[in-house]
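Record Arylsulfatase, 493 aa.
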Amino acid sequence: MKRFSRALASWTVTVAVLVACERTVQAQPAAPPSAGPPNIVFILVDNLGFGELGVYGGGILRGAPTPRIDRLAAEGTRLLNFNVEAQCTPSRSALMTGRFSIRSGTYAVPVGGAADGLTLWEITIAELLSGRGYATGMWGKWHLGSAESRFPTHQGFDEWFGIPRTYDEAFWPSLNQAAGLWPSSGNKQGWSPGIAPPEPLLEARKGEKATQVGVLDLDARRTMEAAITDHAVAFIQRNAAAKKPFFAYVSSSLVHMPTLPNPAFAGKTGNGDWADCLAEMDFRTGQILDAIKQAGIEDNTLVIFASDNGPEATDPWQGDSGPWRGTYFTAMEASLRAPFIIRWPGKVPAGRVSNEIVHVVDMYPTLARAGGAEVPKDRPIDGVDQLAFLLGQQENSNREGFPAYVADRLSAVKWRNWKMHLIWQVNMYDTPQRLPLPKVINLLTDLKEERDAGATSSWVGVPMTKILVDFEQSLKKYPPIKAGTPDPYVPPK
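=>
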């Protein structure tokens, strides 16, 4: 942080004093509409790049139309500047807590063998909504705790089906099976369950120990999305019949590597596995939307479709970043900008498109407000309430910028349509390079982030530096939780 501060100081020496900078707009939060607490369905797809969906310029250009998701966008609001964190675990942590993941010790995808995930001190959006009488369910990848004590059903969810970590681990048993490499054969190079146990498929309910119902291998990977959708649909039907408000967190498995379609979709597009998976994603989304409509709750159900990250970077599953440059695990726009669609009939404007900045941390206070819950007051919450903006009650977002971390490296800062890079990295496999001076990008005139505009636009250092200074001061006042911190965690006084 000190090295960043020195670089910033040298770059902004001719800029006006920080106290003159413009602050992030903080509009008064909107009250939720009076029709009763809405059901909330949050479909978070996995590593879907900006340019994949038809409504974002992909669809048939990527080998498969996406009519159901495109129609969802037409029925609601689509954001062009929805921002996430650079990796799966950080984005999911930010969604659940409303806090940048650097605060929670969840700033990187965990590697096996060490404690990982959210401490139980964190208060998730599921806990907030559960406290307001919501039924809460989650299906798919959790990625915020591999130990039983940190599973979703210990973090506010009534039920869960899925995996604790990531889909990469499907390779472990399956590659050995294909090559005939089993420990009993005397092979010392292949995977051994005695060294790294296979990732379990789990079902769990609040107050009960999770039950293993399978093992993640390539066959299970292919059928994972169907199982996730079936669980979500049953949950929606059950709670709609009981007239109980619910929060359904559908943590989609698509299009995370290995990107493999369900057998029913294999070969359907004629354009390969990736396109088949895009077609399956659209179909599964349609199944959930149909369940909502058939249950007669469409008008009082807030649906969000979003991605946790930018596109995959690994051959042969690379995604498409649309007009942007880069991949996830970086601070490039292709990493930070993700698809986001929200529908709430009669409340969220239909057909609206906005380039206003929204961050995934903003979902926490926004959904809390919609559900009638209050956010915690005993910790810094980085998210800002965007309900009035999303309901069309104001044109501007309540956020103008944010710091962008890649793992624990402060890599960039965004403000309005500008970005300042402190560390340069285009692809996840590139070596991060600390810049001697920050690199300033005008995101309206340079979508590929190729030209440094710092020499002629140094004035943007004022609001950008203010964002960084304020956040640095916040980290000093509220020291971040270290990765691997065990429970119980008690913040320092």
